Amino acid sequence: MQQSEVSGSTRQPLPPPPAYIPPKPYGTYMIDCVHQYTYVWLLNGDSFWFFPIRVESFGTSGFRWTGSFWMFFGIDSRSIDTVACPPIPTLY
User: Quick one: pLDDT band at residue 3, thresholds 50, 70, 90?
Assistant: First the structure.
């Protein structure tokens, strides 16, 4: 389970995401990545780290990594190409 802070009804990740970009998978679903560090590839070519907290049929909301902090962000489901939520290595 990822370290997170509970603030009201949302969970915002504390540390930055991993420093690497995971391999682009085929057939991963955002619902499987809720409350996990998730790398997102959009159909327009953009890609970024995301921490989804809510998935609905029309979109996903959560926190997008800007390079220096997490910002609340929403994504239209139709704009997502694929996602990856790889296991994050731990020291134990």
Answer: very low
